[in-house]
Amino acid sequence: MNTFDCVIVGAGPAGLSAGLTLGRARRYIAVMDNGTNRNRVTQQSHGYLTRDGITPQAFKEAGVNELKNYPSVSYFHTTVTGIRKEFGGERMIVRTMDDETFYTEKVILATGVQEEFPFPSVREFYGKSLFSCPYCDGWEMKDQPLIIIADKEEHTMHMARLIYNWSSDLIVATNGVELSKDCAQELKERKIIIKTEPIKSLNGHNGYLEKIEFKTGETISRSGGFVVPSFYRPNQFAKHLGCEIDEDGTVATDGAGRTTSKNVYIAGETEKSASSSLIISAADGQKAAVSVNTDITLERF
Ligand SMILES: Cc1cc2nc3c(=O)[nH]c(=O)nc-3n(C[C@H](O)[C@H](O)[C@H](O)COP(=O)(O)OP(=O)(O)OC[C@H]3O[C@@H](n4cnc5c(N)ncnc54)[C@H](O)[C@@H]3O)c2cc1C
């Protein structure tokens, strides 16, 4: 029978860490993942203690392999298409794209987020020479001629100030947005070039940026840079399960992964619908798993 104590949707660091904790706690769990983790486009992950420089694929494989040590854990490569409560929320039905049905007492949503870029061609370079997280990839880009692409002044200024310590050879491109006098002055004092004209195209080879062409016809050479995407949840599970979601898009929790909807827990980037990091997401996953195990323990003891 496909009946579990907990189904974990998503096997990024949040879901895998939750799975490991619940497997070690001898809970019957299913971990489901469809391989759409947003970091799959990059070659190396950095900053995860003891795993600095590991590929995203090797990280995921290592996490899935660790789950195999625990016989009460099942792993499914599949897409969850729907989660529905029944019996007043005492049980949930999880459906997958292969038309399989799973029954579970509790669910941890760990489905991450996805990015939307100021213009689609960023995708071609994202993860190889254009990045969004300086803590993840700033070191590799140090002292290079970089571009910062952001179309809101607060984002432009935040990125410029932050990236400056990795490389002072900076051009900021606002893609048509004018900066205030004070901000423009702050950048000019540091010899950061400002381009407010709209971008026509990004050009390079195999994901490595070489040139940016503006609609004015001007072209500049850059070997990479940082973009500020917006982030969104790739599904509506939290909403459909009745979780309270704040105005800023954050799913309300008790700080330990419990949502306001009974038996529904959340971990990793999908909670705030914003970017974080592998290590923070893994920690979130363990927190949510401890909440699940504590609740099951108190309910059944
Ligand atoms: C280009 C790039 C480089 C990065 N580099 C670093 C770095 O160097 N260091 C660092 O710490 N962080 C890095 N990050 C950020 C890091 O990848 C995230 O912070 C982290 O992966 C978030 O973990 P998560 O578990 O919340 O979500 P994810 O890792 O995104 O995992 C979510 C999982 O849910 C699954 N999923 C989604 N919907 C469904 C569904 N309906 N059914 C089944 N499965 C589903 C997906 O397949 C995915 O595997 C980088 C991100 C990007 C984009």
From TrEMBL:
Residues 4-270 form the FAD/NAD(P)-binding domain. Homodimer. SUPFAM superfamilies: FAD/NAD(P)-binding domain (SSF51905). The lineage of its organism: Bacteria, Bacillati, Bacillota, Bacilli, Bacillales. Keywords: Flavoprotein, Oxidoreductase. Transmembrane segments: none annotated. The keyword NAD does not apply. The keyword Oxidoreductase applies. One of its GO terms (molecular function) is oxidoreductase activity. Coiled coil: none annotated. It holds the Pfam family Pyr_redox_2. PANTHER family: THIOREDOXIN REDUCTASE 1-RELATED-RELATED. InterPro entries: FAD/NAD-bd_sf, FAD/NAD-binding_dom, Ferredoxin-NADP_redctase_2. This is Thioredoxin reductase. Its cofactor is FAD.
